[in-house]
Amino acid sequence: MADTEQTELREETAAEAPEVAEHDRTTKLEAELAEAKQQTLYAQAEVQNIRRRAEKDAQDARAYAATAFARDVLSVADNLSRGLAAIPADLRADEKMKGLVTGLEATGRELDSVFARHGITKIAAMGEALDPNKHQAMLEVPSDQPSGMIVQEMQSGYMIKDRLLRPALVGVAKQGD
Q1: Contacts 24+ apart (CB under 8 A), 90-99
Q2: Angle of the 67-86 helix axis to the 95-117 helix axis, nearest 10
Q3: pTM of the entire structure?
Q4: What does the pLDDT read at residue 176?
Q5: Residue 20 above 80 pLDDT?
Q6: Choosing a second label site near 123 at 20 to 30 A (CA), which of 13, 40, 51, 57?
């Protein structure tokens, strides 16, 4: 009730004294101006945040655009490595096969070079402690190594810049019971 009486008194006074009405109008306009300034600041901050996010997204898109392609090419690299590993020593020494083996090894080195140029690196696994961010434990192997140490690598893992491209599939040491 006090608010209503105060408002009525103010309106009566304002009707008789134009300077009070002018003061009220000025106060109201100043409040609206302050609110508009605040909204402008919020809008500018939001635009800046959106710009930063868009720049980061564009930068990430450039840096990691080849991720899907790189994953597909990793299987080619795996098959090439398995093929080279399967060539017996006597065939490697055979003059008829030497050119083929040399060519396959050169292809493997070139593939490694292309990976390096695009920020694709092999993850160290053997002898390392299991890191669930880079390694995927597939089995436990009885070993004299401390538990959790990698003692077998079934498939190499790779990073693309600072992101995991493919985890290394590993066997970890298990202390004897």
Answers
A1: none
A2: 160
A3: 0.64
A4: 65
A5: no
A6: 57
Across residues 3-22, what is the average pLDDT?
69
Residue 16, amino acid: E
**70-94 CB burial, b ≥16 within 10 A, e <16:** beebbeebeeeeeeeeeeeeeeeee
> Is residue 128 within 8 Å of residue 162, measured between CB atoms?
no
Strand locations in 12-167, DSSP E? 120-122, 135-142, 150-155, 158-160, 163-166
Beta strands in the chain (DSSP E): 120-122, 135-142, 150-155, 158-160, 163-166, 168-174
Question: Is residue 156 within 8 Å of residue 123, measured between CB atoms?
Answer: yes
Residues 93-140 have pLDDT tens digits of 888 888 888 899 999 999 999 999 988 999 989 988 999 999 999 999
**Which pair of structure tokens corresponds to residue 118?**
């695009």
**Which token pair is 4?**
């209503």
Write out the two tokens for 24.
């009220």
What's the rounded Cα separation, in Å, for the pair 127 and 150? 5
DSSP code of residue 127: T
